[in-house]
What we know:
Helix content is about 35%, strand content about 30%. By secondary structure, the protein is α/β, with parallel strands linked by helices. The chain folds into 2 domains: about 5-145, Response regulator (Rossmann fold, 3-Layer(aba) Sandwich); about 150-255, CATH 2.40.50.1020. The strands form 4 sheets. A 5-stranded parallel β-sheet has the order 2-1-3-4-5, sandwiched between helices. The chain has a 5-stranded antiparallel β-sheet with strand order 10-9-8-12-11. A hairpin with a 2-residue loop joins strand 6 (about 150-155) and strand 7. Helix 4 packs antiparallel against helix 6 (about 125-145). The protein starts with a strand and ends with a helix.
Amino acid sequence: xxxxxxxxxxxxxxxxxxxxxxxxxxxxxxxxxxxxxxxxxxxxxxxxxxxxxxxxxxxxxxxxxxxxxxxxxxxxxxxxxxxxxxxxxxxxxxxxxxxxxxxxxxxxxxxxxxxxxxxxxxxxxxxxxxxxxxxxxxxxxxxxxxxxxxxxxxxxxxxxxxxxxxxxxxxxxxxxxxxxxxxxxxxxxxxxxxxxxxxxxxxxxxxxxxxxxxxxxxxxxxxxxxxxxxxxxxxxxxxxxxxxxxxxxxxxxxxxxx
Length: 258
């Protein structure tokens, strides 16, 4: 029996471990690689040529959709997106018959997905079909995803304060907590994941500076070059946030070119 050669891509170690544990109970699956970010996923897929990749939709820096967009039709494996509930993504995936798994993943649902994948692999043109489906789904997802939040509810003592996203200078992750700092240097803490809040914010307003930091572009005061091709971003409220090497490339393309 040929085993389904599988790659897992998720930026959260517990999520990868959970999926790995579920897959270990399937005799017809062989895990051939794990990626902790989108860039690694691209390289692994090109190098290992898996049958299927279980791909987290919302990874920082390089998202799941950006991973598949970077692959040619000949490189495209079967793709199963793994995501927390996202109505726009699910609508796009359902409309284009792209498989997905909702977190928390159930073993029975994963088994169904593996069975469907094995059936699709028997088709000679599965790579071209998969590429076309994912491309249509990504277009549908981008078109639908245009209703971004305008306020973030935060608890302050016994009250709930609605913080306007226009007043937010930065959002910094610290484990499962997010530290929100406004333009007036008022600080709040919420229990939320950075990549989930990022998906709810307009990319025209907020830009990722590193794995753990988002900043409001309108709050940028200056961008200082640093060794290694990175930058130190100074915000109007006086905050200084370094950019990662990858996100520095994004900054150059989006903000630092005429």
